[in-house]
Amino acid sequence: MPSETDTPETPRPRYDIDRLKAKLAGIKTEDNPALVRQKSRDFYWYSPTLKRQLDHVAGDIIVSPANEQEVVRVLAAAFELGIPVTPRGTGTGNYGQAMPLSGGIVLDLSGMNKVLAVQPGRFVAEAGAVIAEIDKVARPQAQEIRMHPSTYATASVGGFIAGGSGGVGSITWGGLRDAGNVIRLKVVTMEASPRVLELTGDDLAKVAHAYGTNGIITEVEMPLGPSYRWVDLFLGFDTFERAAAFAGALGEQDGIAKKNIAVVAAPAPQTYFLRHQDYMVPGKHVVIAIIADFAVDAALNFARRQGAELLLRTDKLDEDERRKMPPGFELTWNHTTLRALRVDPAITYLQVLYPFPDQVKLATAIHEKFGDEVVGHLEFVRFDGKVTCFGLPLVRFTTEERLEEIMAIHEDMGAPIFNPHRYTLEEGGMKQTDEVQLAFKKEADPQGLLNPGKMIAWEDPSYDYKSGKTFLFKSLADAGVAS
Predict the structure, then answer these.
(1) Three-state SS for 212?
(2) Are strands 115-119 and 61-64 parallel, antiparallel or unpaired?
(3) What is the β-pairing status of strands 105-108 and 61-64?
(4) Is the pTM of this model over 0.85?
(5) How confident is the model at residue 3 (pLDDT cuts 50, 70, 90)?
(6) What residues contact 362, with CB distance under 8 A and at least 6 apart?
(7) Sign of torsion over alpha carbons 8, 12, 13, 18
(8) CA gap 327, 469 in Å, rounded
């Protein structure tokens, strides 16, 4: 079982890579150590803890299937030879979920990138399709993907489902955990004769946010929403509490079509939003609201009544100025952390839930407690039908011990932490391993060769997964999912 605090480098297992390559003749492989190491990493370095623990991790070979049939061949060969397989999309995750702790095969699915169909209200795509490319096909039909991570331009849709939880769009549509946000998945099992399963309904929860530990996603069907011309609004407030209260109230304005609402406390916008700095008034806490063009006037009227100062609206910029600036969503979610890291490498972050209905009061109390050590960053979402907020605050890292203290203080104050400084499903806290999850793992991956080391309850049968913690993805047993 992985340790909660450390993962020392251990002797690498020896796998019969030559025999594997012979079995995979005709499928693209790469075993140049530098290239394998490059493809063995994700954005784990956002966390100083994970950077220390995982810097040594690398696979033995990259295998890049071109289609589902080749995925089946790879898994059959790996099963026969006892070689672990860690799936990877484009490597934009943050928790080491795409890193091969036991070496073996890095299964690069980025070449399986076809958009297979776009119909009214839905699309079908291979798992490696980049989300921005899906929208390029959907937008001529006035449609777009409902939600996406801030790594929209590079993230694959399969990786988003296997490792993500929601993001830009979640203020309107909720998260990936919510019924209806994924329609169907095709998943290949890791057996002597791999099966291709089609999962729908509650069974989708078995592989959503499971890091590819219990099946390789090869095809995705998801709903589409209406595509609008989106406008980025930057609004300033004198206090963090007023900015957060306004963001929540704007989220509840159902007639205003919106894609994202974020709050970033001063001095982060003024320091880290380099291409927007000319518009960031010193001392102002900033709300970034992404609003449909036809709803901008309504949103600004509402903002004025709430005492907001308009700092910038991107639809009033000339074309050259607009081109110089990243889209607003690339200042939100974990792109806020990325912007900060580019200026100050000592920055890291947390993932926090501020439960409804006291989210603004709690977020404000925590912000005031830590001062500049933990700079407030809120993302407003619909969570179980109610508008509340997650936090991705920027933490000025000093020691791992202090980081643990900061998280414990959040929990003690009533704000559950989804720990981004852990690489296992259970310790990250978004998804609970339960008897249903374990039964499906046993069925789909009986030798435990899929992304080993990421599911403690599989590695250690004595592990107590019946925890009273808050989990973002509900227990499958509680949700009534059959094993």
Answers:
(1) coil
(2) unpaired
(3) parallel
(4) yes
(5) very low
(6) 354, 355, 413, 414, 415
(7) positive
(8) 36
